[in-house]
Amino acid sequence: MSWDFALILFVLLVVTGAVWLVDLAFLRRKRYARAEAVMAVFDANPTGVGTFEAARLRQQAYDKAHRIPWWVEYCVSFFPVILFVFVLRSFLVEPFRIPSGSMLPTLQNGDLILVNKFQYGLRLPVIDKKIVDLGEPKRGDVLVFRYPVDPTVDYIKRVVGLPGDVVLYQNKTLSINGKEIAHQRDGDYYEPDRSAYVGRYTENLGTKQHEILLNKDARQDFMAISDYPYRSNCEYLGNGVRCTVPAGHYFMMGDNRDNSLDSRYWGFVPEQNIVGRAFFIWMNFSEPSRIGRFR
């Protein structure tokens, strides 16, 4: 969906930009010359009416000769707006809407967020080819990316495993490169999707502390949903999964650990699928108090 909108915006930019350029280089001068010729004829043939009426008729004739075709007027008017939106959305920030509860309690269904498009590098619009490398995702970053199973769909998850990491998620406990990532209980959280309370915990990934949801008593079975790339890098256990993250890929998980379809099921996210880092909730119409930054 995001890619389709980017393509439509690019086509509109090209069309309106081409008309704006042709108008600037040729059409505007032709309209001016036509209007001047009409004025010369008008001035050479007095109408015989009063001064005020003559001035009105002269201006009317000038406006008619200098009138901009509607399609040119629309393109010239909209081109700066489309250019601004295109540059902003392609290289700086892009808005997204959270469609599910897989990132609870950090993000909830209905949050409207902003995504930083330049933090990890500048990409050419539409084809998403990186042309300037400005950095790499860090463990704990919340990323929007194109779903590897269906790249037309945008997903949002948290980076858990970096290239080369060995990620183990077993018995509701996360370990990275043999080191267990500790989490501490921080009360309960009401999860709307399940209409029940689950445990809220704090967890530290790299330098980032964030909250996750866990139901310690519920069993969670893991089964790969497809034969995804680098499937041999993962071993599915009775109560967990162990994966070695390949070069140029990332292992993503939702903060709602028992209710998130993520890398534990469909594998790794290639670097070229990354859209950007989510960092700000700019609106939630059901709960405006949520506006602000998040970790």
CATH class call of the largest domain: Mainly Beta
Strand content: 25-35%
CATH fold label of the largest domain: Umud Fragment, subunit A
Shape: elongated
Main sheet specs: 8 strands, antiparallel
- Average pLDDT: 90
Distance linking N and C termini: 26 Å
CATH superfamily of the largest domain: Umud Fragment, subunit A
What does the radius of gyration come to?
29 Å
Q: What is the second-level CATH architecture of the largest domain?
A: Ribbon
Uncertain residue segments: none
Report on this model:
The chain has 295 residues and is an alpha+beta fold. The protein has 2 domains: 90 residues; 196 residues, Umud Fragment, subunit A (Ribbon), CATH 2.10.109.10. Helix content is 29%, strand content 32%. The chain contains 4 helices and 18 strands. Strands 1, 2, 5, 6, 15, 16, 17 and 18 form an 8-stranded antiparallel sheet that branches. Strands 9-8-7-14-13 form a 5-stranded antiparallel sheet, with no helix packed on it. A hairpin with a 7-residue loop joins strand 5 and strand 6. The longest helix has 43 residues. The chain is elongated and about 100 Å long.
Topology:
Layout: H1 2-44, H2 51-65, H3 70-92, E1 93-97, E2 112-116, E3 122-123, E4 130-132, E5 142-146, E6 154-161, E7 166-170, E8 173-176, E9 179-180, E10 183-191, E11 196-205, E12 208-214, E13 234-237, E14 240-244, E15 249-253, H4 263-266, E16 269-270, E17 274-283, E18 292-293
Antiparallel strand pairs: 1-2, 2-17, 3-4, 5-6, 5-17, 6-15, 7-8, 7-14, 8-9, 10-11, 11-12, 13-14, 15-16, 17-18
Helix pairs in contact: 1-2, 1-3
